[in-house]
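$ fold --in a.seq
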Amino acid sequence: MRIKNRVFTIFIITLSLMLVCLVFLNFKQKPINSMLMLIEFEKIDGILQWEKELDNRGLTAMIKVQDNVLNEYSEVFKRLSDKGYEIAGGYDKAPFWDMPYDEQYKYLKKSKELVEGITGKKMKVFGSRYFAYDENTLKAASDLNIEYLLARGTKDVEAVIYQPKEYKTKVISVTNVDVGEMGRGSLCDYSLWARGSDAKDFGIMLTESIVKKPENMILVSHAYLGGTRLEWWNEYEKVLNSDQIEWAGFDDWLKKQNIITLNNSEIPINREVKYVSPKSVKPMEDYEAIPGIEILDGTQKLTGDEMMCQ
């Protein structure tokens, strides 16, 4: 009897240790479900560099550029769409907070027609300036069968999707990070550059965000900065190579989401915008360009009116 009890005890202990090891390994090895978003308001150089890099890795990204860029380089965005990139629509002249329904509907409809006219596909995603939205945006987007709105982050580095019970349209709350006295902003190169930080600071922010181990994350690049300037590009290459992150295109990224369904009044909204004009300490053009990259023309004109990943 003692031998049987001892064998049983050893069996239970061994089984428990195996279960603990399996749980530990599963937790340790689960990478962060991450998506890359590229934004641009004037040039195409960085978009093309990102396309080349992501092609080599078998990856795609979401792209949100201003209408002037979509119109001028429509063949580029048609090609990217055909490769599986998600081309989002936008309105970057003003945030949609408290804008009347009729105005929002007009801008959403115009954006939808532009994107779909270029890609030949349904426009799934829209974001206004600062990723601002309100209930009128949800109404207009639902009426136009637009599936997702981009919104400022509400859960720190964790990117989440909310489903308001009253509407068909869902809300993608992007990764949000604390950048000190200048407030919170997207996990984005431009966001730090415009606040006076450099590529090294951006790299530190990326590392700190990964250490927090969110389940889902969205990393944003202002393509002309992150896609053409060597110091910033190096920081992106580090996270692209990280075994702690699993990069996914938009549709695959969505598949791993646990959508949070709430009454619209219960969904948190982030309206914090503590700066509206760039306060960088070093112009973008003063950073060394990526070797071999072709810069198509001169400098970018930053006025504060352009779309920014704040």
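$ fold --in b.seq
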Amino acid sequence: MIIKSRVALSVLLNGIQDFANISLRRTMLAGMAALALGSALVPAESQAQTRLKWAHVYETSEPYHKWAVWAGEEFKKRTAGKYEIQVFPASSLGKESDINQGLQLGTVDMIYTGASFAARSFPRLAVSYYPFTFRDADHVIKYSKSDVFRELTDGYKKATNGNTVLALTYYGVRHSTSNKPFKNCDEMKGLKMRVPDAPAYTAMPRACGANPTPIAFAEVYLALQNGTVDAQENPLPTIEAKKFYEVQKHIVMTGHIADALLTIVAPAVLAKMSPAEQKTLADVTQEAAEKATQEIRKREGELVGIFKRKASTSLRSIALHSSNVCLRQSNSAAWDWTSATGTAWLPSSS
């Protein structure tokens, strides 16, 4: 009787286990079916994306970053979520020379850069960066739409095996800041002036007998603060964004270079895109460049008055000169610097 009971109990338990296994399998199959159905119903834009890295050395407060972020969001929208662009500001992926190399190495997909840095691969591209090549913002913008610009960017593309310039953004007219005031070329003699690490930027200080000192952009504030250099040069919006006025006593409106940034994309990125997607990327980056250019031009004009008012607080004096200053090159050729409130100093017509 006991044996029969045990057998019956064993059969019962086996039956319960079989039923549990069948129920578990049914539950798992139902779950898998629901998951598959759910995946099929998820919109395409929320599925896996191709992520692109856009690197630059500028602050998040600057228009270049703001409109790069906008371009990324707009490109994602116009490609129904197929692409997502992540923007890395403030040298977070390396200094400017590093991110240029990154295009070739595949560590970045897109960059903002000055032509002088891109010109390490194609020297002719740097012709636009020497002092007084351009009169003002309008002149820079006309150049960006010219056959000369297309010829130079095509040459750069060939030299780099496919790096493509998508857009040009006006960066601003470069002026000088210094703890030592100067009103002409002679008074710059011996001045240690930070410049970007590119030959075109050394031309003005070298011609005036100053000591051009290349320092990475992210390190400039500290170099000015601790006296490694006496001076630096950048457009007014950059001087504001990087707060150089906190560690410099004078802003000297030298206006020696009307500057611009290039938006460049690596060939591997374009190779994965359809022609329509390539055009969309070009369109959004050009739109972003136009929007950033408008902001920079507007801010340049506003900052002249703002920096004058800062003289009683952050700065002890602001040197905005109305006299002409002679910029001499090593071959004794010369340009005139003519200051104008809020605009570049233009080369002499003679």
